[in-house]
Design goal:
One of its GO terms (biological process) is DNA repair. Keywords: Kinase, Transferase. GO terms for molecular function: ATP-dependent polydeoxyribonucleotide 5'-hydroxyl-kinase activity; double-stranded DNA binding; polynucleotide 3'-phosphatase activity. It is a single chain. By secondary structure, the protein is α/β, with parallel strands linked by helices. It folds into 2 domains: 209 residues, HAD superfamily/HAD-like (Rossmann fold, 3-Layer(aba) Sandwich), CATH 3.40.50.1000; 169 residues, P-loop containing nucleotide triphosphate hydrolases (Rossmann fold, 3-Layer(aba) Sandwich), CATH 3.40.50.300. The chain has 14 helices and 14 strands. Helix 5 links the parallel strand 8 and strand 9.
Length: 446
């Protein structure tokens, strides 16, 4: 038998109410979505990446014909962080999103617009080492996010300005990183400003906060000199944001290392006719000096012609391999140069023992170049192939800081026959001298 149907009961819950769903999508957005690509409004900000290193963004209005540049072209160039924008109160400088920063001062947008309307080519040149563009799976997610946040943040600010302006962001330690002039050269190339006279250098300028200023009651000590140095390398006027936007007076400034002044003072010193000569039939010579002090160049110029064999830890990788190679040369009756830093007595003691084992004199050549001079030499060498015969890679700042912290000056008491002091002297063509005399280090480690 079929079971009788249960009697109808009252509803356990109210009947569903038909709610009117309000869409947050605007009719304009819907219309834009269904438009053919050829009819969509083109993007005003377009990005590209050069050499897997330089981020370039160009804000324009594709619906308007480009404004012809007045010649010679006046260029108004600005740093980004702490020059145009700054973190919100309590925020971190390098934590980026569309709401993390505000204008450096309320006058900034209006002042930039005035420059554009008066005919300047507007550009932003910024070091952004915290953005990595490395192409590997481990860092892909993090790097993609850092790049996206940077683009989103710049998009927000440039839309507020809403006039043609370009952004160049150097992410690596290469030719684009300030104070090196790679970003400026990219501007010249993109706007066909390769010939002399195409840029009004007297009326072009760069504004940035990395000016090497000391701490005051109003702000912290500047983290670097790279903005001031970039302007000097280019040959245009430099101002800090306080000077340019607020009209404050120029502060006194002393650069930690002046390449041009170093060359001028070196020319006034008497030349060493015979910086080092062989004194014994067979001998062991060790160098002592910071990376970048000119040790290898000195070997090739002075000691290699005197038939010294060379051992170098940059090539052989370990001290044990250097000692093994030196012993082999000495067993063959040859004199040897140890082209290493040999920063303290412990490092040098390995070589004094080798000399005792072979009953030969050991001599020391002390290279006096300062840490800042050595950092400068290292960066110049790494970025200019004609001055880098051994294809050396750029060293991390810690290499110079570590040497300076652990350096102990050599003494005759360690067992040396003599100690010869060598001061760094630049040697190269006029073109190489011009390259060397520019600023190359973005921030000295000591």
């Amino acid at each position: 038998m079929k079971r009788a149907a249960s009697p109808k009961r009252g509803s356990l819950s109210p009947p569903p109410v038909k709610r009117k769903i309000e869409s947050t999508t605007t009719s304009k957005a819907v219309s834009s979505f269904f438009k053919p690509a050829s009819q969509k409004e083109p993007e005003k900000l377009v990005w590209k990446i050069l050499d897997q290193s330089l981020i370039v963004g160009r804000y324009t209005d594709p619906s308007q014909p480009p404004r012809p540049l007045e010649h010679p072209v006046r260029i108004a160039a600005f740093d980004l962080d702490d020059a145009l924008i700054k973190p919100k109160a309590g925020g971190a400088r390098f934590v980026r999103n569309v709401t993390s920063h505000i204008w450096w001062d309320a006058v900034v947008p209006g002042r930039l617009k005035e420059l554009y309307l008066s005919g300047y080519l507007m550009v932003i040149l910024t070091n952004q080492g915290s953005i990595s563009l490395r192409d590997n799976a481990k860092s892909l997610q993090k790097d993609t996010l850092s790049l996206k946040n940077f683009k989103d943040q710049l998009t927000s600010f440039l839309r507020q300005l809403d006039f043609p302006i370009s952004v160049y962001a150097a992410t690596g330690n290469d030719k684009y990183r300030k104070p090196r002039v790679g970003m400026w050269e990219q501007i010249r190339e993109e706007h066909h400003l390769d010939d002399d006279g195409t840029i009004d250098m007297d009326n072009s300028f760069y504004v940035g906060d990395a000016a090497g200023r000391e701490k005051t009651d109003m702000r912290q000590k500047d983290h670097a000199t790279s903005d001031r140095d970039l302007a000097a390398n280019i040959g245009i006027k430099f101002q800090t944001p306080e000077e340019f936007f607020l009209g404050l007076e120029t502060e006194p400034y002393l650069h930690p290392f002046e390449p041009k002044q170093f060359l001028e003072s070196a020319l006034s010193r008497p030349q060493e006719k015979a910086p080092f000569t062989k004194q014994n039939k067979q001998e062991l010579v060790i160098f002592c000096g910071s990376p970048g002090a000119g040790k290898s160049s000195f070997y090739w110029k002075v000691l290699q012609p005197q038939a010294y064999e060379r051992v170098n830890q940059d090539i052989l990788k370990t001290r044990d391999k250097c000692i093994k190679a030196a012993r082999q040369f000495l067993e063959d009756g040859k004199s040897v140069v140890v082209d290493n830093t040999n920063r303290d007595q412990d490092a040098r003691s390995h070589w004094t023992r080798v000399a005792r084992d072979f009953s030969i004199p050991i001599r020391c050549i002390l290279f006096t170049a300062s840490a800042r001079l050595c950092e400068h030499n290292d960066v110049v060498r790494a970025h200019n192939s004609s001055m880098n015969p051994e294809s050396r890679m750029i060293l991390p700042p810690i290499a110079f800081r570590s040497f300076a912290q652990s350096y102990v000056q050599p003494s005759i008491d360690e067992g040396f026959q003599d100690i010869t002091t060598v001061h760094f002297e630049f040697e190269g063509t006029d073109a190489e001298r011009k390259i060397w005399s520019k600023y190359w280090v973005s921030k000295f480690s000591t």
